[in-house]
Amino acid sequence: MYDEEDNFDGTVVVFQNVTDLMDAIQTRDRFVAEVSHEFRTPLTSIIGYLDVALEEDLDPIVRKFLNTSQRNAERLLGLVTSLLDSAANSSKVTVQEVNLARLVRNSAESVEVQTKKAGLSLQADLPDRMDAKADPVKMGQVVDNLLSNAIKYTPSGGSITVSLRQLGGVGGVDGGGEWAELVVRDTGFGMTAAERGKLFTNFYRTEHVRKAAIPGTGLGLAITQGFVRAHGGEILVSSEKDVGSTFTVRIPLCGPDA
Ligand code: ADP
Question: How far is the CA of 149 from the centre of ligand 1 (A)?
């Protein structure tokens, strides 16, 4: 502190005990993780038995009811799994040598049928190989989530492109190092600038997709962003309402710690 003549007049130090607050945050995270985990076992059993029941010779009305039950049980399981993922420590990655090109190719191939069914075209522009130090499970989830969003939020007749390239060396992102850049682009619903700002918040879903009753939890992108940041990377989005969206992920090729 300084007095009226601007002379030093002492120091005030304020301490605040935040132990209770930290405890409360930890308890909440543990609670979410435990509850989601406990929900999973009975739900898996319900889905399993519904599966078996649907193999029987059934009255069409009963079949319809069971189909609806099964669809909703699966949705609930998806929600619980997402909750568990978001409660899990997303800042911890286990890195190893990964061929990112193959990882993206596998993800693109596994959504081919789904894309065709939705009346969409999917184009992949990938190098033969791109080695990086990354967590293969978490990066796989990043790619899967961006592709599944592109499919869900693009009306029939639209197109999706996924590309991977190397940015690099001097003059690259942050002026150095080599980076992988993954881009998933769609010609879908898109979103307004205001919606774009809230996209990575837990449980946020745009009004359009809620009204259209497209299934989802609003957790995927928050989890995705956590995974990308844990790799020392960034995720960017550009989008225009009724035109389409582009999601860009950049991670350093030599891993988060380098
Ligand atoms: P979910 O897909 O389960 O709702 P996400 O966190 O993955 O959760 O996405 C949050 C919201 O962002 C979506 O509900 C949707 O409104 C919007 N969104 C995400 N990806 C796209 C996309 N490719 N095109 C248009 N909107 C999108």
Answer: 6
Q: Is 158 in the pocket of ligand 1 (CB under 6 A)?
A: no
| Chain centre to alpha carbon of residue 209 | 17
Phi, psi (rounded to 5 degrees) for 163: -140, 155
pLDDT at 145: 93
> Are the C-beta atoms of residues 190 and 240 closer than 8 Å to each other?
yes
The torsion angles phi and psi of 256, rounded to 5 degrees, stand at -65, -30
Judge if the beta carbon of residue 191 lies within 6 A of ligand 1: yes
Distance CA 50, CA 54 (A): 6
User: What pTM was estimated for this model as a whole?
Assistant: 0.73
Q: Residue 230 Cα, ligand 1 centroid: separation in angstroms?
A: 21
Return the half-sphere exposure (C-beta side, CA atoms, 13 A cut-off) of residue 136: 12
Taking the CA of residue 206 as reference, the ligand 1 atom at the shortest distance is 16
When pLDDT is cut at 50, 70 and 90, the band that residue 91 belongs to is: low
- Residue 38: is it exposed, middle or buried by C-beta count within 10 angstroms (0-12/13-18/19+)? exposed
Contacts 24+ apart (CB under 8 A), 232-235: 232/256, 232/257, 233/179, 235/200
For the record, the structure tokens of 111 come out as 């959504």
Which pLDDT value is given to residue 98?
95
Which phi-psi region, left, alpha or beta, contains residue 177 (left: φ > 0; alpha: ψ -120 to 50)?
Answer: left
Q: Is the CB of 227 under 6 A from ligand 1?
A: no
CB environment 215-237: b (16+ within 10 A), e (fewer) = ebbbbbbbbbbbbbbbbbbebeb
